[in-house]
Amino acid sequence: LRKRGVNLIACPSCSRQKFDVISVVNELESRLEDIVDPIDVAVIGCVVNGPGEAKAVSVGLTGGSPNLLYINGKTHSKIENASLVDELEAQIRAQIENQPIND
Question: pTM for the whole thing?
């Protein structure tokens, strides 16, 4: 089978989350429904499981103080809660174009 579009991997949302994982994932799904190129994205709300998941995907986010963005398994930048969805969308689209945005 062929994979198409964004494959969002998210945590089940527990008391350790540092942002509203479900809202972020729902908003990303809505904004990225036009993407047909396959890409794996992890959105994990805490630092317990987040780093492992984020290191295994093209674009990953772990909640914490601060939230960390991973690109291709490597720590890339810190993101504030207020700009999570916008920054993730930009990075996912840039990754599909093979040009991650550098801060």
Answer: 0.88
